[in-house]
């Protein structure tokens, strides 16, 4: 069922924010830290399991290189950070705690590579593994936010539903024009990006994952190019 991952994410945000608003600051920070470390390990392994499905290492390598160059030139990671800073300053700086909780949580849960990668994987293959990992992370983050920002954090579940749901639906339409080899290499390339997210969660390396996102578009394009060249030979 495509879209299930987003629904799980929405439930996790609502549950986490509700629990956080009720508990206040009584949850030890070390509990959140150990859960994040565990999810970092799981994300790392999930990325490897996706990456090894490639049938053409050269296509994945070229996609990462080309995607990284384009992403770095476009400075996608910085653009996302500035977008978040802009909305934070415009919508939450001088408003109520409720609004601050809504805006802050919405940005944290939506502006990030994991939301994009997970939604695309859900739409392309109906695979919710990455969004399930994200849901647990968001649930604990919502709990932490709600202890100080209150019930407004829970409303960010609506942002998650609209944003990730739209990406999943769009990916579902795109899947109709992609061949199986294209989806395979796109998934393997995405696996490397997921692996990089695991590195960030474990505080091993701050990879600019967003700057690598164009690699997801290069992977199917390169498969199509290789197929076209083979057809001419």
Describe it.
The chain is mainly alpha-helical and 233 residues long. The chain has one domain. Helices cover 80% and strands 0% of the residues. It contains 10 helices and no strands. The chain has helices at 4-23, 29-51, 57-74, 76-92, 97-110, 113-125, 129-149, 156-175, 180-201, 215-232. Helix 6 (113-125) packs antiparallel against helix 9 and helix 9 (180-201) packs antiparallel against helix 10. The longest helix has 23 residues, at 29-51. It is elongated, with a radius of gyration of 18 Å.
Radius of gyration: 18 Å
Number of helices: 10
Main sheet makeup:
none
Helicity range: over 70%
What structural class do helix, strand and pairing data support? mainly alpha
* Distance between the amino and carboxyl termini: 41 Å
How many strands?
A: 0
The SSE order reads HHHHHHHHHH
Report the uncertain regions.
Answer: none
Mean pLDDT over all positions? 87
Could you tell me the strand content as a percent range? under 5%
Q: Give the overall shape, derived from the CA principal axes.
A: elongated
Number of separate domains: 1
What's the short version?
The chain is an all-alpha fold.
List its salient traits.
233 residues; mainly alpha; 10 helices; 0% strand; elongated
Give me the secondary-structure topology.
Blueprint: H1 4-23, H2 29-51, H3 57-74, H4 76-92, H5 97-110, H6 113-125, H7 129-149, H8 156-175, H9 180-201, H10 215-232
């Amino acid at each position: 069922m495509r879209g299930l991952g987003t629904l799980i994410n929405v439930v996790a945000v609502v549950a986490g924010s509700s629990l956080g608003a009720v508990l206040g600051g009584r949850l030890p920070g070390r509990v959140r830290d150990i859960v994040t470390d565990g999810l970092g390990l799981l994300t790392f392994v999930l990325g490897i399991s996706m990456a090894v499905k490639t049938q053409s290492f050269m296509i994945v390598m070229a996609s990462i290189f080309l995607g990284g160059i384009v992403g770095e030139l476009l400075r996608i990671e910085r653009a996302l950070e500035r977008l978040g800073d802009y909305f934070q300053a415009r919508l939450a700086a001088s408003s109520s705690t409720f609004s601050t909780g809504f805006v802050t949580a919405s940005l944290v849960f939506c502006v990030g590579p994991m939301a994009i990668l997970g939604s695309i994987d859900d739409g392309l293959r109906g695979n919710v593994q990455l969004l399930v990992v994200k849901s647990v992370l968001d649930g604990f983050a919502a709990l932490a936010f709600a202890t100080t920002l209150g019930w407004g954090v829970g409303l960010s579940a609506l942002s998650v539903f609209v944003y990730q749901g739209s990406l999943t639906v769009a990916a579902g339409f795109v899947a109709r024009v992609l061949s199986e080899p294209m989806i395979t290499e796109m998934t393997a390339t995405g696996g490397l990006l997921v692996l990089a997210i695991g590195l960030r969660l474990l505080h091993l390396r701050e990879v600019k994952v967003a700057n690598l996102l164009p690699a997801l578009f290069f992977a199917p394009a390169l498969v199509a190019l290789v197929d076209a060249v083979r057809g001419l030979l």
